Amino acid sequence: MKLLTPKFIIYLIGVISGAAMQMNWMANGSLITDYVLLEAVFRLVAGAFITAFAFWRIHLWIMKRAGNESGKIRFRQLAFWNACSFAPALIVLLGIGGIVMTREFAVAIIGAMICLNLLVHMLFNSRLSLMNGHGSLGVLFLISGFAALIYQVSWQRVLFATFGIDMESVTLVVSVFMFGLGIGSIIGGMLSERFPHRLREMFFSCEVIIGVFGLASIGIIRAASDVAVHGSFLTVAVTIFAILCLPTMMMGATLPILVTYINRERKNVGSSVGWLYFVNTVGSALAALLTVTLIFPAIGLQGAVWTAAVFNFLVALLVIQSTWGRSSVSSPESGEAA
Prior knowledge:
The chain is mainly alpha-helical. It has helices at residues 6-29, 37-66, 72-84, 103-123, 135-163, 167-194, 199-228, 233-266, 269-321, 324-337. Helix 1 (6-29) crosses helix 2, helix 6 runs parallel beside helix 8 and helix 8 (233-266) crosses helix 9.
């Protein structure tokens, strides 16, 4: 186990990904046989060394700013997992299977590395946590936003396959999705005010319901779409809303639930909403990029939806293990006792 030090992991990832990247670029630029042997070897060695060295310097820069207030053992654990967050760079090995390394592909890999790195620091609640002091909440909403965009892109593709891709279809699907989010946000706000001591349970329930629906969503959407495919525009709109109303409302309800809790801590609605929207948007933006460039080509439409469902269950698990819901229950009681 001593061999698996952060430095060894990063240099291993850097050497492999750097060499693979050079081979991919040489193969795409022209035939590898067109290169002089010495030139090809030089490019492979240089690419491997430069990438490994760059990864290591980035790792040191990140860890220097992460802080070491949590003790040496926890800091070493953080360093290990921070090193592992460079692993998405190994995706360039897919070039062996004929996948071309495009700019979009490179951006997707970098995005995955950043996402994993942020996730690690939020789990360890380091100085680089997106929500310092509320690291677990940042993780929850980042993953939640990531899963939601996978669902949106996947469900849109299934619906477009039935109803076609034109301006009316695109507008209808996006409008129904956003309408469900809006209604869910209103309901979530009302429930948060009505049951302020059950925020943890409500958030858990939302994620589980979304995940359960996600597992069967492709079959449900296709079956309902086949029934309404020859109906009027109104029939199609009602059908799409009936299919997506439950999961989208659950997605929309998660924001006011978390805002209610964080606002108790910060006493600032603007700061609470701003932080949560930022974290959720980061997850959504990464999902919008990675779903099309990596997830669909790798595991297909059904696999993408199942992956999103796994993320929902992961969030539910993190909610169960976290203590943020308990503190929200105890704080009013302590205030009354005082």
